[in-house]
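Extended Data, panel c. Modelled sequence:
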Amino acid sequence: MRVLLMILAFILLNPELSHAGRYQSFSLLQTKKNNNNYINVLSEEPIPTNETFTSNELLPKIRDFVDTPEGAIDWKLLGQTKQTPYHYKDEDGMDWEGVLPEFSEELKALDNQEITIKGFMFPLGQEEKQSLFLLGPFPMSCPYHYHVTPNLIIEVHASEKLKFSFDAVTIKGKLELVPRDEEYNVFYRLKDAHFE
């Protein structure tokens, strides 16, 4: 936990990385700066380097990276979850900020149901096989931080360790909607997950 707090402090205190503390900028597609201080993305249109993206701007880009297999849920359903910032004090009197989800009725109907979804693994350990990892609609762009909003990340608990892949994977498991997670701001968990 101490290491995680040190990494978070480094990110928030470093001026070049401080944008990561706000609703997490979308650096996933950013490849290189050109002479006009723009970053060339996997398209013809450059995006300014100081641009921060919202879920509404990210959702249309998902299909450029991952498809929705037949019978699987679409990331756009998860991306529709509204995010409400809140503040609280822990038992030591420390002030913290978090984000609360507001799930749609369609998503609430999937709570505790087995679902299938396709996405990219974000490992939480250094091992080749992972039993706990994050899953999202975009490939990882940073080994320390998945630069998307909480409504586009699933915390996956695999039934057995799964081999990490840089390619998109299809995963099946029991979806758990998380109304409040003060430690990691997790909105969704996938339990007893396995590759499909």
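The first helix runs from residue 2 to 13. This feature is highlighted in the accompanying rendering.
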